[in-house]
Design a protein that fits this description.
The protein has 202 residues and is an alpha+beta fold. The protein folds into three domains: 42 residues, no CATH class; 81 residues, lambda repressor-like DNA-binding domains (434 Repressor (Amino-terminal Domain), Orthogonal Bundle); 55 residues, no CATH class. 49% of the residues lie in helices and 13% in strands. Strands 2-1-4-3 form a four-stranded antiparallel β-sheet. Strand 3 and strand 4 form a beta hairpin. Helix 7 runs antiparallel to helix 8, helix 7 crosses helix 9 and helix 8 packs across helix 9. The longest helix has 21 residues. The chain is elongated, with a radius of gyration of 26 Å. The two termini are 49 Å apart. GO terms for molecular function: DNA binding. It holds the Pfam family DUF6922. InterPro entries: DUF6922 (IPR053830), Lambda_DNA-bd_dom_sf (IPR010982).
Length: 202
């Protein structure tokens, strides 16, 4: 954040945090006619988790640059480049560096956005394969290592245990994770079969 003072018709900023212009955007909040607060919004924070190709597509559109000629100027196939700008294909580091130089972006901008995007997708995959462990009661799985449970293969045992011993929050989270239909199926099976055991995975 910076405090900006109006002086002779121009804005002067005293920076507390050194951030390069190419990696930040600025929001001015006027306090009065002489003083305003200038907030620096990190470029990376603004687009964190968004595919860098989507960001690139917006940048090209803003600059009125046509994708096909731009792709050819980088010795890149237009169809491949189009897939990147639609977020359907990852952006390689060599290509990202060429684009950054061509557009005058700070080196590493698109590379970092790709890394943030990859992290976001990895987290989403984790969420798909594992329920929110911060919600589930630890006492439910006292006899095993909860981090080593195969939640997909052992879903019957997990559902049975949660609905026998868990509280309402446990049941809601497991229902969210597995779906109502899968819960019903597992509970119906538990009435006709011996209790399932949760085993540790290797």
């Amino acid at each position: 954040m910076a405090i900006c003072g109006r002086w002779s018709g121009t804005l002067r900023c005293s920076w507390r945090n050194k951030t390069s212009v190419s990696a930040a955007s600025f929001i001015l909040r006027y306090v009065n006619k002489n003083v305003c607060i200038c907030i620096v919004v990190s470029y990376y924070e603004k687009y964190k988790g968004i595919h860098p190709g989507i960001v690139l597509g917006r940048e090209l559109k803003k600059r009125a640059i046509k994708q096909r000629p731009f792709a050819l100027s980088l010795a890149e196939h237009p169809q491949t480049f189009n897939a990147i700008t639609k977020g359907k294909r990852g952006l390689s580091t060599p290509l990202a560096l060429k684009i950054e130089r061509k557009l005058g972006l700070e080196e590493g901008t698109l590379v970092i956005l790709q890394a943030y995007y990859d992290i976001q997708k990895a987290k989403e995959q984790e969420t798909k394969h594992t329920p929110d462990l911060s919600i589930l009661s630890k006492s439910l799985f006292w006899d095993t290592d909860i981090n080593r449970i195969d939640w997909q293969r052992q879903y019957r045992a997990v559902i049975q245990r949660v609905f026998e011993r868990g509280n309402e929050n446990d049941k809601k989270e497991i229902t969210r994770f597995y779906s109502t239909e899968k819960i019903k199926l597992a509970l119906e099976e538990s009435k006709t079969r011996h209790p399932y055991t949760i085993h540790k995975t290797n």
